[in-house]
Amino acid sequence: MLKLKNIYYHPSTSERAILKGISLDVKRGQPLIISGASGTGKTSLLEVISGMVSQNKGTIFYEDQTLTERQRRAMCGVVFQFPERHFIGMTVAHELRLGHRRLSGDLQAEVLTKVGLGLIDISEFPERLSGGQQRRLAIAVQLIRRPKVLLLDEPTAGLDWSIRDGILRLIKKLSQEQYMIIVTHEPEIFSSWNITNYQLETK
Ligand SMILES: Nc1ncnc2c1ncn2[C@@H]1O[C@H](COP(=O)(O)OP(=O)(O)OP(=O)(O)O)[C@@H](O)[C@H]1O
Ligand SMILES: [Mg+2]
Q1: Residues in the ligand 1 pocket, defined by CB under 6 Å
Q2: Can you give the CATH number for the domain in which 183 is found?
């Protein structure tokens, strides 16, 4: 179980606290949806959980161990909103190898197959892929790190519905194998999944 207990986050650059007393549990194989209107702190919560920023109060546990920010950074894979805007690799293979110079061909193939890009030309420019393929590549980039927790910020934002369904199927499949937290302002698109929706409230 991944557990947040009474998380309070008030960066010095903000007049007000962004997160106040957030407590929630995530079970392996049962994704958690975090929803709420714009500005309610969804992305900030992902940043805290993944150790990119520090909470001011509260504790995050993984299987009953308290986690430091550093441990969280190592174990979390975050796919931010519109991840394709941040591709910097010259090719698909290059994008996957950033930070993993010794990435084995086997792992690369395993991860690409897992996200449904098994047949892709790895010498292709990432910007030449379709919108759905780019999202899949962004997820693959995180899976290469073998994260214990996958955090997805608005994973279907800006996609046509036909492409969106494929991405939703992929996310559902991945969520059966690991801890997953999905941020969305449209929780209804996950309504058939029968999973917990934690709603952040407007302050
Ligand atoms: N480091 C920071 N310093 C000051 N204010 C911040 C900081 N990070 C976030 N905020 C503010 O906190 C609020 C919550 O931001 P956040 O991006 O987490 O919301 P969100 O729910 O993800 O919104 P959206 O749905 O628009 O993506 C916003 O008002 C934002 O401007
Ligand atoms: Mg956000």
Answers
A1: 11, 13-14, 18, 36, 38-44, 185
A2: 3.40.50.300
